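S1.2 Input.
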Amino acid sequence: MIQQLKIFFYVLALLFSTPLIAQTNIKGVITEKSGEPIPGVNIYVDGTYDGATTDMEGAFSFETEEAGDHQVVATFIGYKKHVTEVKLEGNPIELTIQLQEEINKLDGVTITAGTFEASDEKKSVVLKPLDIAMTAGATADIPGALNTLPGTQKVGESGRLFVRGGASTETRTFVDGMLMNSFYNTSGPNMPGRSRFSPFLFKGTFFSTGGYSAEYGQAMSSALVLNTFDLPEQTESNISLMSVGGSASHTERWERGSVFGELAYTNLKPYQSLINQAYDWEKPSESLGGSFMVRQKSGKSGIFKLYGSFANASFALRQPDINSPGGSNRIAIKNGYSYLNATYKNQLGGGWYYSGGVSQTISEDNIDFDADRVDNGEHAWHVKSVFTNDSNEKVTLKLGQEVIVRDFTDNITAAEGQSLINEKTETLPATFAEADVYLSNKFVFRTGARLEYSSLIDSWNLAPRASLAYKTTAFSQVSFAYGRFYQTPDNERFRVTTSLSSEVASHYILNYQIQKNNRTFRIEGYMKAYDKLVKYNGNEPYNPTYFNNKGYGDANGLDIFFRDAKTFRNIDYWVSYSFLDTERDYLTFQSSAVPGFASKHNFSFVYKHFIDAIKSQVGFTYSYGSGRYYNDPNKDGVMNSQLPSYQDFSFNIAYLFRPQVIFYASATNLLGRDNVFGYQFADNPNSDGVFESRAIGQPAKRFLFLGVFITLSKDKSKNQLENL
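S1.3 Output.
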């Protein structure tokens, strides 16, 4: 007992001989900039375990035995770290902390109004590059796949992109930011063409249906931007054996670069012999072409790209013609085409990036129309430099300048010996500036403008652009876009005069989009106003009595898109619907009316299914377009009659015979529907005063394609499925 008392008094004395350790109480509230409390914030004294977590009211309270000068740190995901300097002396400390949101440009809100993007690089895309190639009915044609999206429509006699009431000439195409003219193969009247490039060349596709960036101009309706691959995965060779031709390519990859070369031959004679044709083909469509790509990295972030493509194509046929004494006309076309594109991009330091390049497009046609001859061509050069800065997390700045030079010629020689020669050159310099302002992860605002000059018409144009997007939930957002877009009139308008001004369109777009669990839903309304459209009198633009810019028009509509790759195993599908209300007073129209290429209702259903049991991917596409309008001279008014609806059911299948060998088959318009695209009327009435007519239909009821695709590589599982 005595021993225990000694120990007790010893401990008591020790306690009283040691200075008391002071404790400091730290409490407070943590809020957003708006004043809303933030629960779950981690707050602590730096270098210690003393701290707490805020409650639902954003409040916290804890004690620390530390003394002297210290830092109190507050951290929370999505917000910048906040540091407060304090002096701990035992006196209570009360803090009011306001956290600033940390801007994440990659995972934050993105502008989606008027934009569809096919890419593997961003989470917000609604299509992938593979979708472009594997859409039934598209036959691996980029515009063919894009025509299943809302805002576009099938114009069967053209095969080109018609966007939101705009003609196909109102869309411009760019490769790695550089202009590419003559995007489509040359085709005859009422004969659908296709684009010149395979989708496997590109890692991403940016397709704008309106309100696009100030970086792109000379397009009243749409911009199509194709971005090529940086470096391929490995060295490989590909062989394609098809019912309409064949191709062979080789890619050589080294550590910091690669080279690619391809040669392709196409001949439609086997197909035209198998499927009954509406035209009398004297020479089947035939082409020989190729392409090459060189890629080389430089330094830590630089890359140089060189891309080239060339082709020679020809065909000859007799087409029905109600005004020809023989009942048909002979058309023969030869086309020579080449495209060269060189680009370079690199990081400059200080948050600055550079991208720029030069491109050249050459396209020349020799056309025989019975005894008449037309030789036309266009040479275009494009030089461009863009500087981007994102050193400020809240602002991304883009500054750029470019020059486009176009030479175009028309040499028309009539059978009677009369000739018309038209040679024009347009130099079009432009500068643009644009800024993305990230007010938060939920709100981004873009503003910019483009200033350009056309030497051909001696005209300056200032085109403002603005857009914004607000993230309503973690998976949804609303977006708005406005833009004013100018375009030099088509080449054929300058056969007589250059006393014209730029045509112009103003876009207003409101978009809502939600993406969750591999499902996407978007709805978009728009208004588009046209002004200064070209008008002329007479049947032919090269023989009018006047040209002017007094035309106008509008296009208003609603686009709906839904895609689901989640609900059903190995099944992916999307549905698109477009409503279009449009009228124009332009060209030879005597009053405002619906243009002949516009359908009020357009619908597409795209279905893809990978079947493991048979190692195959099957797909089909159903497309519908309400009847377009046409002008019947036997009736009063303008565009006074309506065609039957357009309908198409297409099917494809890809069978993986071996890991490196694929069998592929496709059929467009599988059911053989006889779609009518318009009527050709006689120039003069018959004895009863009636203008006789003939229907303009499809060159053939369906198109069939068979192919075998072989890949040779070190990776024996590599194949061309992504290219089909």
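S1.4 Remarks. The domain at 115-723 is CATH 2.40.170.20 (Maltoporin; Chain A).
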